[in-house]
Specification:
Elements: H1 2-26, H2 43-53, E1 57-64, E2 75-83, E3 89-92, H3 94-97, E4 102-106, E5 112-121, E6 126-130, E7 155-160, E8 168-179, E9 189-192, E10 204-206, E11 212-220, E12 229-233, H4 234-245, E13 249-250, E14 253-254, E15 257-261, H5 264-270, E16 278-283, H6 288-291, E17 311-315, E18 318-319, H7 323-333, E19 339-346, E20 349-356, E21 358-359, E22 378-380
Parallel strand pairs: 5-13
Antiparallel strand pairs: 1-2, 1-4, 2-3, 3-6, 4-5, 5-6, 7-8, 7-10, 8-9, 9-12, 10-11, 11-12, 11-22, 14-21, 15-16, 16-17, 17-18, 17-19, 19-20
């Protein structure tokens, strides 16, 4: 009997091996243990995260006085923000609160409370507003996580009030990192396909642990674009938060050029001896670059870079290959009034040009901006609207 059992076991083992081999050969799937890897989306986890985080996410109502015939406020809009401490401090986008004559915060229970702007950082599109700490007593602030640890494919959860729909949650993934918003100094942005819409401005982008990894800021506005949004990394917000809390209006240094990265083909077309660096396409009038005589290429009728422009190859001895390289260095290392040394190739010779940096201007007149300055494809998320016939353009 024992011998017979042994033969049966042996036959069954052979049969199992044979079936497994057939399934592999035919592409059939052999189920793995349930603990092999976590699911990409867990309803229970997302619902728990929502319950935990949403009380700290608020709708910010904005009024801009501009007046109708009777002098009444006409322009209203809304954005989002989230609690970052127990003192009533709420982080949001600068473009949400810019130009506001009054602010109110809608709490989750439906109560509306007054708020004031504490500090702003226009170039990073960040602002800190404050409500009475007693109004948010008992609400747990959201934690700013490490955006440097974010990776494409990780879950991304957006909370906010798109179109005034308070308490909205959308779920997607991080779809890209280190994005640059054309026509701005917003670099290193997190890209996500989690749906963000007008009114989501200033709301948090969370990871699966409920930590804030970004502040939702911009959407791709090219015709037909869908599911491309951008968030200011949380590490940027953490760096600026002390100054914002101290009530500072943060300014950033400005050079005043637009340019393009040199390539082998562009270098050949321009007759240059090098194929690395930033070729200056335009120099803004009255800018620091203009004051020291930096030269832009003569633009032909087609709008392409013309010949004769300077090439910036290094900033303070650090090699650069793109405008974002220059912007990132200035923002991270320089203040308004500092001097920066540019290594410039001009007429085939390398020279050093010292430039004293000004503050980035609030706005540039259309006559001061040459047509060759790249126009942005992305736009800040509008604050939303409170009247059917009016939407605050941002």
């Amino acid at each position: 009997m024992t011998s017979m059992k042994s033969k049966i076991v042996a036959v069954l083992a052979v049969a199992v091996i044979a079936v497994a081999g057939y399934m592999v050969a035919t592409g059939a799937v052999i189920p793995h243990a349930a603990s092999a890897s976590p699911a990409l989306y867990s309803e229970d986890a997302v619902m728990a995260l929502y319950d935990s985080a949403s009380p700290a996410v608020f709708e910010i109502k904005v009024t801009q006085r501009g007046g109708d015939f009777f002098g009444r406020p006409m322009q209203k809009g809304q954005g989002s923000g989230f609690l970052v401490d127990g003192n009533g401090s709420i982080l949001t986008n600068n473009h949400v609160v810019a130009g506001a004559s009054s602010l109110q915060v809608l709490l989750k229970g439906g109560e509306t409370v007054d708020a004031t702007v504490v500090g702003t950082d226009r170039l990073h599109d960040l602002a800190l507003v404050k409500v009475d700490a007693a109004e948010v007593s008992g609400i747990t602030p959201l934690q700013l996580g490490d955006s440097g640890a974010a990776k494409p494919g990780q879950m991304a959860i957006a909370l906010g009030s798109p179109y005034g729909l308070e308490g909205t949650i959308t779920v997607g993934v991080i779809s890209g990192l280190n994005r640059t918003i054309d026509g701005s100094n917003l670099t290193g942005m997190i890209q996500t396909d989690a749906a963000i819409n007008p009114g989501n401005s200033g709301g948090p982008l969370l990871n699966s642990n409920g930590q804030v990894i970004g502040i939702n800021t911009a959407i791709e506005s090219a015709p037909g674009a869908r599911g491309i949004g951008f968030a200011v990394p949380s590490n940027v917000a953490k760096k600026q938060l002390p100054d914002l809390t101290a009530g500072k209006q943060i300014t950033r240094p400005w050079l005043g050029i637009s340019g393009t990265s040199l390539t082998d083909s562009l270098s050949k077309d321009l007759g240059l001896s090098i194929s690395h660096g930033v070729y200056i396409v335009t120099v803004i009038g009255e800018s620091p670059a203009a004051k020291v005589g930096l030269k832009a290429g003569d633009t032909d009728t087609g709008g392409d870079p013309g010949k004769g422009g300077d090439v910036i190859t290094a900033v303070d001895g650090k090699a650069v290959a793109s405008i974002p390289d220059i912007s990132s260095y200035l923002i991270s290392n320089k203040k308004v009034g500092d001097t920066v040394n540019l290594t410039v190739l001009r007429d085939g010779k390398s020279t050093t040009v010292a430039v004293t940096l000004d503050a980035w201007p609030d706005r540039l007149s259309s006559s001061a901006v040459p047509k060759t300055v790249p126009q942005p494809k992305t736009t800040p998320i509008p604050r939303g609207h409170s009247f059917p016939w009016f939407q605050v353009p941002r």
